[in-house]
Amino acid sequence: MTSQLRARLRARRWLVAAAAAALAVGVVTATQAAFADTAFSANFEDGSTSAWSKSGGTWTVVTDGSKVLQQSNATTNNARFFAGDSNWTDYTVQARVKPLSLGSGGFAGLLARAGGATTFYRLALLPGNAVQLQAVNGGSVTVLASASRTVATGTWYTLSLTVKGTQISAAVDGTAVGSGTSSVVAKGRIGLQTAYSTAGFDDVVVTTGGTSPTPSATTGGPSPSASASPTRSASASASPSPSNSQPPSSTLYVSPSGSASAPGTQSSPTTLASAITRVTAGGTIYLRGGTYAQSSTITIAPGNNGTSGATKTLMAYPGETPVLNFSAQTEDPANRGLAVNGNYWHLYGIVVERAGDNGIFVGGSNNVIERTITRYNRDSGLQLSRIASDTPQSQWPSNNLILSAESHDNADADGEDADGFAAKLTVGNGNVFRYAVSHNNIDDGWDLYTKTDTGPIGPVTIEDSLSYNNGTLSNGTVNSNGDRNGYKLGGEDISVNHVIRRNIAFDNGKHGFTYNRNLGTMTISNNLSIDNTERNFSFDGGSSVFRNNTSCRSGSGSNDKTVGDADSSNQFYAGTNGSRCANYSGALSWSFASDGRLVVTLGGRAVTL
């Protein structure tokens, strides 16, 4: 939530390196041009740099949330790391770069067409908030374009450098730096470089726009792990199956105007349904921006799985927003939006709206659902539950991570079931919500309801997340049938030992955090609850353990109730505010940081829990 929170997982935010995760080697040049859009990628998750060659500097793979490459020698004037094929000509290289220090006269940058150690094109982040596109020829540097941009140490930037003939262009975070004409070098490898500076590098990808680079005689080294960049998929229910003439692929492109019979290249995109049946383990489906009008559920079927080392990924094309719109559906439990019933999938950057039931339904296991938005759906925006009533308990969804996701304005006709997020009725162990935001849903922000006819669900972890204004839609609609809690943690007097830590409940229509008849030993720690209509903390039974929680009110409200183990580290509300509440006043605002952490402010002050 704040800069003080420590993520255990930083799944890659752009995931641009995912496109080649299924390749068996670190540097591969394809022989079939139709499927050669991504020529190289590296995310350093396996710790290997065998596909790279060093020239100066101290280069190591370190942990910065996930694995990244770091150059740590601030005294060298020329630290370079090269990869790829010396015969590559026209391509785009993109990478995330985080300057850690920028010395006088120094820079951190990305290279293209490195014809040698001192001849290449360079996009450089410079001290003094400047970015330059440069042609470097030995000791001579020609500035082709420049721009004034904020360049701060400790911040990730996405650098993109395109070389096509004599035309050289560049962008930072999707915004053009400029372009120029140069004939300094016609072909060459990619590279990373610092001078009198230290920096981190991650998610390197080379794309060729559907044209294979010149074949290389060598393959370099092992491929980066696909675990951080899974493949993307779509459901076969939405459109006809692809023809048998279309082979499986590790990289496919989908657009709203794509054709099921198309090969799925950038220039000839396919449909979501076609892509989901063809993407291979470790592969990637890129969804181009725009609205995808869908009338039936898109299903990733059981058995359509990645693996722990080669996840399948369904992701937004970098810098674009795909919206899956299901407004043609009627409200019905059968009319879900996107059903993720396979295992080892990674969804990233997708909006799912107006489904007749759940926006995203997760019935599979070991999936990562990241940077998604579920909105205006007619049941819970994102829900984890078993696939069917006869699904054995051993196959209930387990070990799923919902990361940096938002869910809002989900509402059903009777107002009783549409939550922001739900892991209820039938879920297994190990499911985690982290850095998630649920607001303005007609029922609860989170619902972990369990009941007697299905038995207890597995323990769920909710951490570093925010729930506010639930029970009232953004347009002011309220339904008296809604429970309207921030975090509803149980049901039916069944004991489940959930972990609820470092979360905020703000101005929800009933309770902030409520046990809801969960008689288990939950861990309730470091949570902040403010101005919820009834109680900020409502635990009338069970044996939960409460540590370092804070409850505040700007007006009247009911006193908190906490049955269980609650010591003096907590500051609950019993008619007056405690001293901590001076830190938690004012208007609420929030955003996701570049690395996906949730940043919450109250009255302009960052909230630290």
From TrEMBL:
Pfam family, one: 3keto-disac_hyd
Biased composition, class Low complexity, residue ranges: 207-251
Keywords: Calcium, Lyase, Metal-binding, Secreted, Signal
Region (Disordered): 207-269
UniProt cross-references to InterPro entries, sorted A to Z: AL/BT2_dom, ConA-like_dom_sf, Pectin_lyas_fold, Pectin_lyase_fold/virulence, Polysaccharide_Lyase_9
Places the protein is found: Secreted
Leader peptide range in chain numbering: 1-36
Top-level lineage group: Bacteria
Biased composition annotated in UniProt, kind: Polar residues: 252-269
Record-annotated 3-keto-alpha-glucoside-1,2-lyase/3-keto-2-hydroxy-glucal hydratase domain positions: 44-206
Cofactor: Ca(2+)
Family, similarity comment: Belongs to the polysaccharide lyase 9 family.
Name of protein: 3-keto-alpha-glucoside-1,2-lyase/3-keto-2-hydroxy-glucal hydratase domain-containing protein
Organism: Dactylosporangium darangshiense
